[in-house]
Structures are given as C-alpha cells and as structure tokens.
Amino acid sequence: MKIFINCLVVILPWKLKRWILNRFYKFDLHRNAYIGLSYIFPKHLTMAEGAFIGHLNVAIHLEEIQLGKNCTISRQNWITGFPLSNKTHFQDYPNRMPALIMDEDSAITKQHMIDCTDTVTIGSFTSIAGYGTQVLSHSTSLEKNRQSCARISIGHHCFVGTRSIILPGTILPDQSVLGAGGVLTKQFHESFALYGGVPARFIKKMDETYSFFHRTYRPR
Asked: What is the CATH number of domain 2-214?
C-alpha cells in the first residue's frame, strides 16, 4: 500500500507534491527545489535552494539524502542503501549510515548507480560525469564470508569520468580527476592529480590553474 501511495505522489504537480512531501513525509524541501517524475523516498530528504532531481531516478532504502544549494541529480540514476531497520546484514558495522550527502553545486549526471549502504559524500562543485559509473559502499568480505561496508568520500571540485567504479572505503581527494573507466580501490590524498587505471593509481599532477578546480559556479 505504501508503494502505491508513493507512486501516486510521484505523478502529482510539483507544488502539490512538495507540500505533501513536506507536510506528511516530513521532508525539508526548499520552495525553489524541484523533483521530477522520480521515485525518491529515503527516510528523510533535505533539498536546499535550487536543488534539482530530474526524471526517472529511483532512491530507496536510505536513511537520509541531503542535497545542498544548486545540486543536480539528472535522470535515470539508481540510488539505494540498506535500511538500519533490517538486521540481516552489517551487524558488525554499528556506525554505518545509509546516506547520500551532496554539497553545493555538485552533480550526478545520467544512468549511474550509487550504493549508499554506508554514507557516500560528494563535495561541492564535483561532477559524477558521463554515464554508467558505479559507486559501491558495500561488498563481500572474503575473509569473514559476510557482507561488509565502508564510507566513500569524493572531494570538492572533482571530476569522475564515465563508467568509473568507486569501491568501499575509498577517498578521491579534493580537486582531482578519476579518469574514465578507472577503478578506485583505496584512499588517495594528493590534490590536483589525475588518477586512473584498473586499479586506479596516481598518473600525473595536473595544472593547478585549471578553472574547473576553482570554479564558483557550475554551467547549467
């Protein structure tokens, strides 16, 4: 029944939908935020001024989604978690939080898969670009023969190339690039760097004067 009601809410005109989501779902949606024809039902959703979610996105089984000012989730993205109320897995991780946190002017473009079994943080002015990137905060521990998870941090002013894979516990540092098809398997800390390959490794320093690394707006 709940899924049926949610589907009805999805197709409502935005002003009415926003009022229902704020009033009955206890979401916090700015009057200048927007959600298209998308099934976005975490336990709690915060969208700041100018935050935008396009059509045909799905976001379920998360405790929280926070979208900062002017954030964008474009279309056809699949965003999932594993609810804290479900005790069948991840009992070894009492501090995990199924959440997606996007800072201001960050963007997820099209047809990406974001697994937020544990928190995924995307810094300001960062772009998950192209198509088909997978951000996976959970896996299977071969050592322990059970599900495992770890937080993922993508810094500010980063560019994640098309069809990349970002694995649990990894860090992409501020003002850096993960090249197309790269598989991020560990934590890096050097900014103004290009990382790429399978598994991703440091490739070269990048020009620190590039405008992308210092931008104060994101082209629409």
From this structure: 2.160.10.10
